[in-house]
Each structure stands twice: as C-alpha cells, then as structure tokens.
Amino acid sequence: MSEFRIHHDVNELLSLLHVRGGDGAEVFIDLLQKNRTPYVTTTVSTHSAKVKIAEYSKTPEDFLRKYDELKSKNVRNLDPLVYLLSKLSEDKEMLQCLQQNAKERSEASANATTSTTFAIPPTSTKISMQELEELRKKLGNVTASSSVPQSAEVTRKMLRDRHNKKNPTQPNPVFPNWVYDRPALIGDFITGATPAGGDPAVAIGTMPLPAQEQALVDDLLFVLVGVDGRDITAQPVLGRQNRSFIVDPTLDMSIKELEKSSFEYGQVNHALTAAMRTLMKEYLILVTQLEHLHRQGMLSLQKLWFYIQPTMRTMEILASIASSVDKGDCMGGSTLSLLHDRTFNYTGDSQAQELCLYLTKAASVPYFEILEKWIYRGIIKDPYSEFMVEEHELQKEKIQEDYNDKYWDQRYTIVQHRIPSFLQKMADKILSTGKYLNVVRECGRDVTCPDAKEVLYTLKERAYVEQIEKSYYYASKVLLDFLMEEKELVARLRSIKHYFLMDKGDFFVHFMDLTEEELKKPVDDIVPPRLEALLELALRMSTANTDPFKDDLKVNMLENQSVINAILNTTPPSSGYKGEEPNSLFVQ
What we know:
- It is a single chain.
- This protein is mainly alpha-helical.
- It has helices at 3-16, 25-35, 43-56, 60-72, 78-90, 92-115, 129-145, 152-166, 178-181, 209-224, 253-256, 266-295, 301-307, 309-327, 333-345, 350-377, 399-402, 406-410, 427-442, 462-486, 489-500, 505-514, 516-519, 528-541, 563-568; strands at residues 232-234, 245-247, 389-391, 412-414, 555-558, 584-587.
- It has four domains: 3-105, no CATH class; 180-254, no CATH class; 264-486, no CATH class; 489-587, no CATH class.
- The longest helix has 30 residues, at 266-295.
C-alpha cells in the first residue's frame, strides 16, 4: 500500500469515527508505517478468525454462509479482513467504542432524514393555490434530487408536457393506428402470441440430445426474425429496455451453457478448460472400461463402488473449481490466484494437490507467455486484458514540448485484481522490467534478454522468482548503460550545471550584457530570433564554448507561466501544482 493511500485511509477512518483533536492523523500514519508487516494467510489462522467472529455474531450461520460465498468468488484480502475483525472483536473497549459510534451515526442519519421532510396540510383543511404551488415545488425538488432513475414512460411524459408548454398549438407526434391494430408489421415480438414450432406439451428436456439441438435451431431461426419459438420466448418490455428471453428450464445443461463458451473469457480460462477436458476424457475411458466389464458379467456393485472412488474425488474438485471460477467471474490472474490457493490448501492431500497443481500449470501457460514477452522484450500482447500490466494509449508526439514524465508514468500501470497471488511480491519488479526495456526500445534499440528461459509454475516459487530477478537486473543494466554511455547522462548533467547552477558564470554575464536592451522591451515586442542570435554569441564569447552540448541551449518565451512553473511542469500532472504567473523568458 502506498503512503498516499495510507494517508487517505487514516483520514477517512478518523472522519467516520468523528475523531477531533488529539495527536492527529500523522501520528497514526507513522505508527502504521513503522509496525506494518505482511499478513501470511494460513488455514489455521483463517479458521480461528472465523470461529472468533462467529462467537460474537448474533447470526453465526449467516456470517459463515456469507464468508463461504465471498471466498468462492475469490474476493481479494478477505482473510486479512476477517483476521482484523477477529482482533477487533477481542478488544472489549474498542468493540464498545465502535458500537457507540455506529449508534451515533445511525441516529445522525435518521435526524438528517427527518429534517428534510416537510409538513403536509391535513386533508380536512382547504389548500390555497399558493400553498398548492409551494407543495408542488417541494415535491418537484425531492423528485429531482432523488437518485432513483426515472422510467422511460415518466421521461416521455415529462418531454410531452414540456413540448405542450413551449408549443401549445403544435400537436405531439403520435404513432399511427396501424401500429396497434397490426403489430406484426413492426417486426417486433408479439406478446401473447401462440409460439411457433411443434407440440408444446412435449418438454424439450425429454427429447434426445440431437433432437434438442434441432428443436433449438428451429427456435433460434424464429427468434432471429422477431417471432417467439416453442422453447425460447421473448419477455415483455417496458419502454426502451433491453430485450430478454426465457429458455425452457428442462433444456440440457450442455446446450443451455453454450453461450458462455466465448473467447472473451480469456486464454487462462480456456487453458484451464482444456486441462479439465483432458481429465474428462480419462473419466469417459473409465466409464467405457466399466461398461466393458459389466457386459462381460465381471462388474458387481461393490466393484463399481470401489473403482469410482478416486474418480469421485477428482470430479468433486473439478466441479468445485469450475463453480468458484463461475461465481467469482474470474479471469486471468484471478483464476490463477484461485488455483494457487486451492493447491496450497490441499497440502495434506497429496492426490488432490497433484490434481490442482496439474490444472494450475496448464492454466498458467498463456499467462506466463505474456509475462515472458514483457520481462524479456518489453512487449505486451494481452488481447483479453488478463495480464497484471495494462497499457494505455498515450500520444508521444508532444514529449519534446511537454517535458514531463506523464508518458512513462501513466502508459503502463498495475491492475491489482489481475495479479496472481504468487506474483504479488514481484509485481513492482515485473512492471519496472518491462518499462525499462520499453524505454530502450522506444529510443530505437531492439533488446532481448540473453538469459531468457521459459517461466513455469511450480510450488517452489524461487524458480520463477529467479528468472524475474535476472531479467530485472538485465533491464536495469541495459537502461543504465544506455543513459550513461550512449546518451552521456553525466556529461549532460554537467552541461546543465554550467547554465542553471552558474558553473560558467561568465556566460551569464555576457548574455545579460548583450540582451539588456532587448529584455527592456515589453514581452510582445521581443523578437525571439534576435535573442537566439545573442544567446549563441554569448556562448561563443564565454568559457562555455567548449561544452559539446551548448547547441542544445535554446530560448523559449513562456506565456502565462514563470520559470518556477516551467520547472514544476516536468513533474507528473498529479503533483497538484497550479498557478499562473506573468510572461517570462526561459533558457532551456
């Protein structure tokens, strides 16, 4: 967590707790920064934390059910949060303070709600036109301030009323009568019409699988032209809502879930699916072998139960993983985090751990291919937005004029939820490695790490951590050599020292003497080419004439900006410095 995030969170917490005065936020921030340590999740610590919270909860079953639901969705930092809550529940004074604060905030919220209400005259009294108009305005203000979105019908009615006020003599456009008399002519679904197709009394789920597919194809052809099918019907819509359809619930699951077989789910999920299909083939082979034994009369019920025991455990794990990926909408790094956690959770079960390890290795292959391109060449090829580093489209044409590092600072960023849990510690190095190589590539040099090796997932993280560190050191060395040798960074810094730190003081004296008359003029009357000529003459007359980079010194007229503003402009825009100063002359 960055220092700015800690500042923000501490200040927000103090605001929620209504803490006034005292030592201030800085004291707590220093304590957090000095004493924070990484939380290491273990099965024992997580279970202990859950038990403690359940003991203090009025509805422990609801808490455990919610925890399991969030865990199945692969929510990040769930276990550290549960551990923190368990520690808070142990501290009686802290718990009492938080309960009191929650009570005060709820009362304050209730008072704020009641203060916004207004009195309505009793029904037995007569309301004057003035009171009625005031009441109408108040109701209008309440409606306008409401965050609940208006329906399409209400919006259209409001637009019609506004139109009638502005143009009372011009009638509103209306639909012709044939739209209602002959709905089939508008090309939309007809609500309440008899479905097309075969006998509705026969449920599609009772048909064989090939027959279900044929019936579904017939329905889809009808639906494509705006006609309800037998097993696929359109739901009525209100206004301009999106159209949705009802599919016969008895339809075979393999066909019903076909729409989820899409490339948008990413390469990691497809690799995981391919690995699962391999295991499913082995499962079908087992079923075939059992059927062969059965036909030979050599398969009893006890033998069948014995043979399918290992397979039952395998299918249970596969179903659990598939369900967790589906519930959590996992993609890319989040899928790998889920698989990695499952692999470590099965430490005591060697067969289950070996199965999860096989799935994790297979699913991590496309992710590590993207990682290899990034840390070895500085290239991102991530068509489905699965990788932890995201590339932003920024224009680099203005780098020469802007003189800030926005291009390098914001072009590549880390996306937290895409970081696999086993690469969390290396995320910053991975980002920097690719950025360093990319800087060199953008300057016209194609670089590739000479120690490039295939990165593979293992339970011993040191294997891929070493590869990442090697590529990081190589990228750092390449960039440093590029700046120090090819771009002569030290010599350029020495050149900057000549002019901006007055290392060559005679140059500045010559320049001010030569440009005295020109600089006395108003800014609009100064001729920049003349200043350029005088600057070059001052350079030739001073000891700075031996500087190899003297030709890079230019004169720039800064409009509505001071020299300080120009220097601060070299920092990222997030620095927050704003301000305008009179026109200035800037030698750069």
